[in-house]
Amino acid sequence: MNTSSLSVSKFLYNWILMFVVWLGFTTSLAPAELITGAVVSLIVVAMTAKYLNCCGLDIFLPNKLFYISKYIGVFTIALIKSNIDVAKRVLSPALPINPGIVQIETKLTNEFAKMVLANTITLTPGTLTVDMVGNTYYIHWIDVTSEDPIEAHKEIAKQFEDILLKIFK
Amino acid sequence: MMEILEYIGYAFVLIGGIFLFLGSLGIYRMPDVYNRLQAGTKASTMGAMSTIMGVGLIQPEWFFKTLIIVIFIAIANPLSSHALGRGAYRASLTPFMKKKMDAYDKEFHQNKED
Lengths: 169, 114
Fold this sequence. Notes:
- The structure holds two protein chains of two kinds.
- By secondary structure, chain A is mainly alpha-helical.
- Chain A has helices spanning 3-26, 31-48, 62-91, 111-123, 149-156, 158-167; strands at 100-105, 127-133, 136-141.
- Chain A folds into two domains: 3-58, no CATH class; 61-167, no CATH class.
- Chain A is 61% helix and 11% strand.
- In chain A, strands 1-3-2 form a three-stranded antiparallel β-sheet.
- Chain A is elongated.
- Chain B has one domain (2-113).
- Chain B has helices at residues 2-29, 33-58, 63-90, 104-113.
- In chain B, helix 1 (2-29) runs antiparallel to helix 2 and helix 2 (33-58) runs antiparallel to helix 3 (63-90).
- Chain B is elongated and about 60 Å long.
- In chain B, 37% of the residues are buried.
- At the A-B interface, helix 1, helix 3, strand 1, helix 4 and strand 2 of A face helix 1, helix 2, helix 3 and helix 4 of B.
């Protein structure tokens, strides 16, 4: 795909996204609402298009939608697990923590995908992304089991990275 | 049917409240800013998301609005905790460690000399 058709696809994607947000907020299918929503979201996207370059229309392909829903499922389970983990640590009188900062490398190249992975790592059990330099994440880990970047990567990021690699080539 | 949905909503609100409480307990008990952020971020994300989803289930006409708020929280909460953690390190707050394991130390000092 050349750059201009790519940017058209991004524009349309953002327009659809904004329109869906509008639908969610108004929860009405009256024609006047729909037309106003289309116009307002068009104006918003026209003003902000240069900042919104995460994905294009190809995100609506069925196999990508499948991986996105899989990601949301895996993420929700990780979020619940991490909360049970926090609860266990906080409620145990000995406060079982062994914190440290480890580094891991990611194979992802897309900037948006890297941001999603960093946010996911922050919300998964016992890890918090402190900084990201190029392809390296620096992660504060509440209970370090391995300082080796490859081992740490396997434990912290692998399951999410595999799915993200399928969504963002 | 509506009543069942309402009770599920109340259960969500209750679970959210419990996790918010545990998060604040974590902020009180943890030894340093990074561990506090860990407890605070996870618990407040899940707590707020669950509470707001619960409100959406009790009032079904608000459901899509609450869903959008939940998505915003899922994006904004980890971002802000990341910014706080990075800011704390840059303000030279040394992380509490039982045994020194700090891979960020080297990178940080390289940047400082630039």
